[in-house]
Design brief:
Elements: H1 2-13, E1 33-42, E2 45-56, E3 61-72, H2 75-78, E4 86-91, E5 99-106
Parallel strand pairs: 3-5
Antiparallel strand pairs: 1-2, 1-4, 2-3, 4-5
Bound molecules: zinc ion.
Length: 108
């Protein structure tokens, strides 16, 4: 309920005609969510990088691995995002060959 109210508030304040926008578009966000740093920006896409921990059972050790994901960048979020920002992205249906996530907001 409260979540919908804030979503509607953002919807009224900003406008965009992107069908894949998480706020204005038809796309549904579901699945995993990622928090990572923006390392590259393209016209409709941004590359997010984050670290995760992988377990190697054979050696009983943990190691860090870096993952990059390509996320959809909608028109209304685009202007508030720069390289180096920490953003939140969520998994969606496949948008294109390399995109299956969408950026939903900036953290800092
Ligand atoms: Zn939008």
């Amino acid at each position: 309920m409260e979540k919908n109210e804030t979503k509607n508030k953002i919807k009224e304040e900003t406008e965009c005609s992107d069908p894949n926008c998480p706020i204005h578009g038809q796309i549904s966000v579901r699945g995993k969510s990622f928090t990572g740093k923006i390392i590259k920006i393209f016209p409709k896409r941004a590359v997010i990088e984050f670290q995760r921990i992988v377990k190697y059972p054979k050696y009983e050790r943990f190691a860090k691995a870096t993952t990059k994901i390509h996320a959809h960048l909608s028109d209304c979020i685009k202007h508030q995002i720069n390289i180096g920002d920490l953003v939140k992205a969520t998994e969606t249906r496949r948008i294109s060959k390399i995109k299956h996530a969408v950026i939903i907001g900036k953290i800092r």
